[in-house]
Design goal:
The structure is a homodimer.
Chain A lengths: L1 H16 L3 H17 L1 H17 L4 H7 L3 H16 L7 E6 L5 E8 L2 E6 L3 H13 L3 E5 L5 H17 L7 E3 L5 H7 L8 E5 L2 H10 L12 E5 L5 H13 L8 E7 L3 H12 L5 E4 L1 H6 L4 E2 L2 H4 L7 E7 L2 H11 L4 E5 L3 H10 L4 E6 L16 E3 L7 E3 L5 E12 L3
Parallel strand pairs in A: 3-4, 3-6, 4-5, 7-8, 7-12, 8-11, 9-10, 9-11, 12-13
Antiparallel strand pairs in A: 1-2, 2-16, 14-15
Helix pairs in contact in A: 2-5, 2-7, 3-7, 5-6, 10-11
Chain lengths: 413, 413
C-alpha cells in the first residue's frame, strides 16, 4: 500500500520535472479556485473531525488548530495564490565552467523529487505543504494528524481534482489515509521512493522523525533563543528588543527564552526590562545575581536555562562579559536565533562570528527569523540543522542541484 | 568516553571557527612536514597491522589497501599541501540584502562544526579526511577500520603533535580508538555533538550508516551508471565513450555498468563496441535483442541491470528509443552519473532534463564525475543523495551557512 503510494509519487515526480512554470501557475490557481468553490463540503467534513475531537475531550487549543472556518479556507486559497506569484526557482543555472579538456560543466537547480511531510492536526498545512511542493515541481506524500483525517481527505480530493482538470499527474499530491503509527514509521524508512522527509510540528513529532527516519530529514526546529545585553548596549534599545523578543508571540520558536545581561549594566538594565514587561505578566527566573538586583525574580535552575518555555516566562542571567555570554549561548542554545545588543564594534563582530546558530542578530529582535521577514515570500519551516538548509526555508530549500555536462566525445585518460 | 570525545570535539570546533586562513595554512603544512619526518615510526606501526591482517588470512586486496610505503606516506603529505593551496571557503558572504525595515541580512559560509567520518582500513583516508576538515575549520572524529588501528593511532598522534606545535586546539582531530561495533553505533547517534556523519567506503558500510544513524548523514555513493547510444549517435564516439566508461577503471563508482543502444543502430554499434572492448576481456550480458546480434553475450537477467559490477562485466540492452532509455535509467540507476551519446539537440536536452542523477553527460564518459575533474581541487566523496550536496563534494560541501543580521534597534510588530 505504502509501497504503491511511493511508486506513484516517484512516477509523478518524473512528470512534474517536465512541466513549465506556466503549467504550474495554472495548477496553483486551479487549486485556489477549487478550495473556494468547495468551502461547504470542506466545512462539513471538518465538522466531523472537530466533533470527534471534542467528544474525545480534546483541549480547546487543539480544537482551535483543527477547526476550519470560511475565512480560514479563503486564507488557504489566498496562500496558494501568493506562492504562485513567487519566482519559480527550478531550472536556474547556478554556475557553468569550461574545463581545460573542453567539457562544459553547469550546476542546475532541479526538484528534490518526492517529499514526505509529517505534521499534526492542522488542515491548513495540507494546502500549504502541497502548494510549496508543486511550485518547486516536487511530488508529495502528506501525512497529517489522525484527528484531521476527514478534513485532509476532502482538501486533498479538492486539490487532486483541480490538478486533474489542468492535466497534472494525479499522484502529484497524495494523502496517507492510514495514519497508524506503524505506517508512519514505514514512511520514515521509504528510502527507495522518498527523497526527503520534513516534519512540521512540535518537539515530540520532530524528535520521533529524527530518531526513526532512514530517509534524509530536514529538521525544523525548536528555539531556545537568547538576547544578550552587552555592557555598551543602549539600555532602552535593549529593553525594547528583549520585550519584543519575549512577549510579542511567546509560543513561537523565534521568541526569546533567556536574557543575558552584562554585570556592568545589570543594575540599570534589569529593573528597566522588568518594568517594560510588567504589563505582560512575565514570570522572571533569574540567577543569584539577578535576584540580588530584582528580588521579585524566582531562582532559576540549570533546567530553566535549557528550556524553551514558549510562554510568558523569562530566564535571566547576569554574565561577566561577552566570553561568558557566548559560552552560555553555545551551551544552552538550540542553534536557532541569537541576538546581541551592543554599541561596540568588536563585540558585535565576535558575537556574529562565534555564536553557532542559524540566525545571529546585532541590535534587533530574534523574532525576525522567518521566511517572510527574510524576503523569501514563503516558508516551509526553520531549519536548525546544518545540512542542506539552515534558518528559514523558502522555495529554494525545496530544490537540489544536478550537474549537466556538455561534451564532444571526451573520455578520461 | 565517546561522550567526552564528542564534548572535546565540540569545544575544539568553537576554537577552530576563530582561526584565520593563515593559521590553518601553518597547521596543514606542519602536518605535511610531520608525516614526512615520522615515516619510520609510521611504517613500524603499519607493519603491525599488516602482519596481523596477514596472520588472520586477509585477502591480498585488503592487505594492499592497508599497507603503507614511504611513497604512500609522501603522497599523503603531498595531499595535505595540495589541500592547503586551495582557497579557504570559510567567511564568504553568499548574498546580503537590506530589507524595507532597515535590517541588513547576509548569508555567510561557516564550518559545519564537528564531522564524524567512518571509513575502512585505509590509513591514507585518516590524513585526507582530517586535512579536509581542518581546511574548512571543522573538528573531526575519525573512526577507521579496526585492522588499521596501529597505523591510524600513529598517524593521528603525528598530526595532533603538529597541530599542537602551531597552537591548534588538541581535540581538533580525534581518533576513535575503540573500534567496536557498539561504539560505532553510538557514534552514529551522537546528535548532541556531531553535526554530520560521512561514511566513506563500500556499500555495506554506507548502508549500515544510513540505517542506523540519527545524526544527519551525507551518503556517498554507489554508482550503477549507464551510457545510452541514441539513434543519432556518432558510433565511433559512442564506442570510445562506453569503452572508456567501462574499462578505464571498472572498480570505481563512476564506471559504467550498462550500455543501452537504440535499436536503429544496434546492429552496427554493438559489434563495434564488443570489438573495442575485446582486449579487456569484458563479459557481456545482454537482452534477447542483444544476443540476436551478438550471440557471444550471455543472457542478462533483471538482476544484472540492477547490479553495480565494479568489474569487467557489462550489461547491455537494446531499447526502442529515448523514452525507454530514460525510463530504464531512472528505474535501475543509483542517481550517480549517466551519459547519452547523440547528435540530436532535442534528445540531448530531454536526457539532461529528465534523467534523475547527480551528473548527466552528453557525449562524454561518466568517468569524469570526480572532484578533481570538476575543478574542485579536492574530493571528500561523491554524494548520491539530494540533500546538502549532490555529486562530487569539494571543500564547500564541508561548510554550512549562517544568517548574520545587522540592525539598529528593530523589533517585530
Amino acid at each position: 500500500m505504502l509501497e504503491t503510494i511511493g511508486k506513484q509519487a516517484k512516477q509523478a515526480s518524473y512528470q512534474l520535472m517536465k512541466l513549465s512554470a506556466a503549467q504550474k501557475e495554472e495548477a496553483l490557481l486551479a487549486i485556489a479556485d477549487a478550495l473556494e468553490k468547495n468551502i461547504p463540503a470542506i466545512l462539513d467534513e471538518n465538522k466531523k473531525d472537530v466533533d470527534a475531537l471534542a467528544a474525545k475531550g480534546g483541549t480547546q487549543a487543539l480544537i482551535d488548530r483543527l477547526t476550519l472556518t470560511e475565512k480560514r479556507i479563503l486564507d488557504m486559497a489566498d496562500g496558494a495564490r501568493q506562492v504562485n506569484a513567487l519566482q519559480d526557482p527550478i531550472g536556474e543555472v547556478l554556475g557553468m565552467v569550461k574545463r581545460p579538456n573542453g567539457l562544459v560543466i553547469g550546476k542546475k537547480r532541479v526538484p528534490l523529487g518526492v517529499i514526505g511531510i509529517i505534521y499534526e492536526a492542522r488542515p491548513n498545512v495540507t494546502v500549504d505543504a502541497a502548494v510549496l511542493c508543486l511550485k518547486t515541481s516536487n511530488a508529495c506524500i502528506l501525512r497529517g494528524g489522525s484527528e484531521a483525517i476527514h478534513s485532509n481527505k476532502v482538501i486533498v480530493d479538492t486539490m487532486v481534482s483541480a490538478l486533474s482538470s489542468v492535466g497534472f499527474p494525479q499522484y502529484s499530491v497524495q494523502l496517507l489515509e492510514d495514519t497508524s503509527r506503524e505506517t508512519v514509521t514505514k514512511l520514515m524508512k521509504l528510502n527507495e521512493y522518498l527523497d526527503v522527509l520534513i516534519p512540521r510540528g512540535g518537539k515530540g513529532l520532530i524528535k520521533s522523525v529524527v530518531q526513526n527516519a532512514t530517509v534524509p530529514v530536514i529538521e525544523t526546529g525548536t528555539g531556545n533563543c537568547h538576547v544578550y545585553m552587552e555592557r555598551s548596549a543602549e539600555i532602552p534599545m535593549g529593553v525594547e528588543i528583549i520585550t519584543n523578543a519575549k512577549t510579542s508571540r511567546p509560543a513561537v520558536c523565534n521568541a526569546a527564552e533567556t536574557l543575558l545581561v552584562d554585570e556592568a549594566i545589570a543594575e540599570e538594565a534589569l529593573p528597566a526590562a522588568y518594568e517594560a514587561m510588567k504589563e505582560f505578566h512575565v514570570e522572571w527566573r533569574g540567577c543569584e545575581k539577578t535576584r540580588a538586583i530584582l528580588p521579585q525574580a524566582k531562582l532559576a535552575t540549570e533546567e530553566d536555562f535549557a528550556t524553551e518555555y514558549n510562554d510568558y516566562i523569562l530566564a535571566v542571567k547576569v554574565v561577566s562579559g561577552i566570553d561568558e555570554a557566548i559560552a552560555h549561548i553555545n551551551r544552552y542554545g538550540t542553534g536557532h536565533s541569537e541576538a546581541i545588543v551592543t554599541s561596540d564594534y568588536f563585540a558585535a563582530n565576535r558575537f556574529l562570528d562565534e555564536i553557532d546558530a542559524a540566525a545571529v542578530y546585532v541590535n534587533a529582535s530574534t523574532r525576525f527569523t522567518d521566511g517572510f521577514e527574510f524576503g523569501f515570500g514563503a516558508e516551509i519551516g526553520i531549519s536548525t540543522q546544518k545540512l542542506h538548509a539552515r534558518g528559514p526555508m523558502g522555495l529554494k530549500e525545496l530544490t537540489t542541484t544536478k550537474y549537466v555536462i556538455y561534451g564532444n566525445g571526451q573520455v578520461r585518460r
